[in-house]
Every structure is written in C-alpha cells, then in structure tokens.
Write a structure and sequence with these properties.
By secondary structure, the chain is mainly β. It folds into 2 domains: 40-143, Immunoglobulin-like; 147-311. Helices cover 9% and strands 39% of the residues. The chain has 3 helices and 23 strands. It has helices at residues 2-20, 160-163, 304-311; strands at 40-42, 47-52, 58-65, 72-81, 86-87, 91-94, 100-107, 115-122, 136-143, 147-155, 169-178, 183-188, 197-198, 205-206, 222-228, 231-234, 237-242, 247-252, 268-270, 275-278, 283-287, 291-294, 298-301. Strand 21 and strand 22 form a beta hairpin. The longest helix has 19 residues, at 2-20.
Length: 327
C-alpha cells in the first residue's frame, strides 16, 4: 500500500510540474460551429446531371443535416438560374428527427435539347465546418430531344431461348437522342402486337408473326438502348406478350440480374456499320413459369441500309424493296 501511495504522489507531482511549465505545449480549441448550426449540406456529388423525358416539369434535390434532435428551417440561395427556367423554394423545413429532405425544383419554359444550369446554396450559418458535404450544388438540367430516324430492325434471339423459333427481322420505328453520357435509341416492343404486314420498304415484319391476338398483353413497352464508352445496354422491359407461361420480359443481364461481366457481356456498338450486337448471354429472356435464362444473340440495326449491308457485305442484292425473305 505504501508503494502504491508513493507512485500516486509521484504522478501528481509530475502533472503539476507539467501544467506549470512555461515551456510546455499549449492547445487552443479550434473554430467552432455557430450556435444552432444544423450541419446542412447537399447530398451526393457537387456536380449533378439531370436529364428528363419531354413532359416532365420537375426534379428533386436532396438536402441533408447532421443535427436532427429538433425541428429546423434553412434558407436557400439561388446562385445561378440560367434563363430563369427554375422555380426553387426559398426555405426548407425539417421535422425533429428528420435527417434528409427532398426539394422539388419546378421547371418552366425549358426547350428540348438545351442544357440549363442551376446553382443552389445553403444560406446563413447552417453549414458545419466539420461535415462532409457541399454548401452548394451545381445541376446541369436538360429535357431530352428525341429525333425520329425511320425504320430500324430488331433481329429476334429472345423467343428462341425457350421455343427454338427462327430469328426473324422485326421492323421498328426508331427514335434517337444524345444524353450527357450516351447515344440512346428507343422503339416500341416489336412483340407487343400480332403481325400486320411487311415494312413499307419491303424489308422485315411489322408485329410478331408467331403471336395470336389473345397472346398480346396490352400496355406500353418501350425498348431503350444506351450506347456508352463502356458498352451497350438494354433497359429491363416487358415484351408485351404471354404464351401461357407468364409475361415475357428482357433486358441486359449485367448490372440487372448479375455483375459477372466475364459471363454476361454488354452489347457491342458497330458504329460504322450502324448496328448493335447483343452477343449470346448478353440479354435475358424471362417467363415467370419458366424462369430467367440467358438469351441467344440479338441484333439491332438503326436503318434499312445498315441491315442490307449486313446481309450483303459485298453490296450484292440491290435495294430494300423486293429483298428475298422479306415476305
């Protein structure tokens, strides 16, 4: 016990000596957040890109805070509002316990295909000095402008996954647009109707020849193909038909139902030739009672010329009208 008491006494003397030593290091508290600071910040990256379809007149931005124990309100400052197309709230209120809030930005008089910039900032002393996040956010906004480019051709390899039918050329009316990161094509599902005839240029079927009327599922089914530097994807979509085994659907495997790109590759864009190749096991075909399986090869041609050049790489065979196999 005497030894313990002696050690404690020595420690106390050392502490007193250090605290009184004029040469000892001194520490000053750093700058503190203002009283009542809620630690507000814009979630996500500083730079944001928002692209919407025609007819969409609003989008959302997420504001977050780190101090959530009480209700609070923060003012917003509009730093830049290009062409005054954005209508923004002047303040945002949080309930007690609420950490994030989605802010709705309305858009007026914006033109399709034109990029507009909006910069917002948190006003006042509600930004913490020690919180990751951004006091400001810069948003590049655009309404996509779609251009009709006439007939393209979808070469079916989906239905053959289950039924072994011939890979037919299906004529589709194609639109395209350029986004911030991709070239995008879209067309209505060629499977969502019965066959109504041959394409006016004599090449490919309009509607799906193997469908009976009762096998068509009413609805809107839009095939959207994105071409980026990484590869080509088909957004998951219903095909618009049911042969008694559940509704058909399709899409790119990688990024949707698997991340094994070595087994399920992305599509390939043959830019000079004007077509997209979805290799075998790139897309899936799904029927609820059969399950989901990797599909056979599918091809998408952006024009009749591209399809004819693919069929006749040496330029033999002439024009689209009268091509063999079109009837």
């Amino acid at each position: 016990m005497k030894i313990i008491n002696k050690l404690l006494a020595m420690l106390a003397v050392a502490v007193i000596a250090t605290s009184c030593d004029p040469d000892a290091e001194s520490y000053t508290a750093g700058e503190q957040d203002p009283a009542g600071c809620q630690g507000m910040y814009f979630a996500g990256n500083y730079n944001k890109t928002v692209e919407v379809e025609p007819g969409v007149s609003s989008f959302e931005v997420t504001l977050a805070r780190t101090v959530t124990d009480a209700a609070g309100t923060v003012d917003l400052e509009v730093v830049n509002n290009e062409e005054n197309v954005f209508i923004c709230p002047s303040s945002v209120s949080f309930a007690a316990g609420e950490a994030t809030k989605n802010i709705t930005i309305e858009v007026q008089n914006a033109k399709e295909g034109v990029n507009y910039n909006l910069m917002l900032a948190v006003a006042g002393d509600n930004v913490s000095l020690y919180t990751d996040g951004y006091r400001e956010t810069s948003i590049d906004f655009a309404i996509l402008k779609w251009e009709s480019i006439g007939y393209g051709y979808w070469i079916d390899g989906l239905v053959g996954t289950f039924f072994g039918v011939e890979q037919l050329p299906l004529a589709v009316e194609v639109e395209k647009t350029n986004t911030a990161t991709s070239l995008r094509y879209r067309f209505n599902s060629p499977y969502a109707s019965v066959m109504t005839g041959i394409c006016p240029n004599g090449l490919g079927y309009i509607g799906y020849p193997y469908n009976a009327p009762e096998e068509v599922v009413a609805g809107e089914y839009l095939f959207i193909i994105d071409i980026t530097s990484a590869g080509v994807t088909l957004k998951p979509v219903g095909m618009g038909m049911n042969w008694g085994y559940g509704d058909f659907s399709t899409g790119t495997i990688y990024g949707n139902i698997s991340n094994k790109i070595e087994s399920y590759p992305l599509g390939i864009y043959h830019e000079e030739e004007g077509y997209v190749e979805f290799p075998e096991s790139s897309l899936y075909c799904d029927m609820s009672e059969y399950g989901t399986y990797p599909a056979l090869e599918c091809l998408f041609f952006t024009s009749a010329e591209a399809y004819l050049n693919y069929l006749n790489p040496e330029g033999e065979g002439g024009e689209a009208e009268g091509e063999e196999g079109a009837e």
